[in-house]
Amino acid sequence: MSVDPMAYETQFFGFTPQTCMLRVYIAFQDYLFEMMLVVEGVMLKKLDGIPGCKITPSQIRKCTEKFLLFMKEHFDKLFAKMEEMLLQLVLNIPKNVLLPEDRVQEQYPYSEEEFQALQDELQQLQQQCRAEAAAEQALRAELEEQKVVKAELEKILQCFDGLENICREHGAGNFKESFALLTQSCKKLQDVLKDVEEKSRKMKQHDQLM
Fold first, then answer.
1. What stretch or stretches form a coiled coil here (predicted)?
2. Do residues 84 and 71 lie in contact, with contact meaning Cβ atoms separated by under 8 Å?
3. What is the reported pTM?
């Protein structure tokens, strides 16, 4: 059988021409074997009806096998010619014929270097898309964090508003000023506490020396 891959024909037909011819060959061969079995069966019936016939079934089988071998040899020669004719005249696409799905290549031809450049550009675009997707995902995560922080800040503002309202109800004046005075008072108390602790430490050291 032909060893030509016939890729263009395979693209058009959807199967390789060699595969088609192989199936035809197998079908003819199976039909030939079946025909020989039928002929053998008819001969056995005919001879069985002849009185005194000395031809045995094994002799008929040998003759059938010889005839089958003879037929197969001639069939292979005829099939080789038929295969060559079908592959050249029926299952062959001429070199000057362009399939409809490939006409775009005729309209927009490109070289191997141009194709490689397009491949490189496509790869770069894919990398950019992946980078932009990763950046978008990071921005979304940051936005979610900002939403959480915003909610906490709103809670804190509500708390300060509540404290300011309480201060006003009790005549404490402006909450910010009161908070500043409270902070200064706390600082003074911390300084006094440190001074007391320092004096207490010195007194303990003096008692130990005495």
1. 108-206
2. no
3. 0.45
Q: Which residues contact 55 (CB under 8 A, 6 or more apart)?
A: 47
Rounded to the nearest integer, the mean pLDDT of the chain is: 80
Q: What is the pLDDT of residue 168?
A: 64
C-alpha–C-alpha distance, residues 122 and 114, integer Å: 12
Measured CA to CA, the distance from residue 186 to residue 183 in angstroms comes to 5
Q: Is 32 exposed, middle or buried (0-12, 13-18, 19+ CB in 10 A)?
A: middle
Q: 64-84 b/e with 16+ CB inside 10 Å = b?
A: beeebeeeeeebeeebeeebe
- Compute the distance between CA of residue 177 and CA of residue 171 in angstroms, rounded to an integer: 13
Q: Which residues contact 22 (CB under 8 A, 6 or more apart)?
A: 1
Helices (H) and strands (E) in the chain, counts: 6, 0
Looking at residue 101, the DSSP 8-state letter turns out to be G
Phi, then psi, of 93 in degrees rounded to 5: -100, 120
The DSSP call for residue 6 is -
Question: How far apart are the C-alpha atoms of 111 and 126, rounded to whole Å?
Answer: 23
**pLDDT of res. 166:** 63
Name the band, by pLDDT with cuts 50, 70 and 90, for residue 6: confident
Token code pair at residue 29? 């061969």
Rounded Cα–Cα distance for residues 20 and 75 (Å): 17
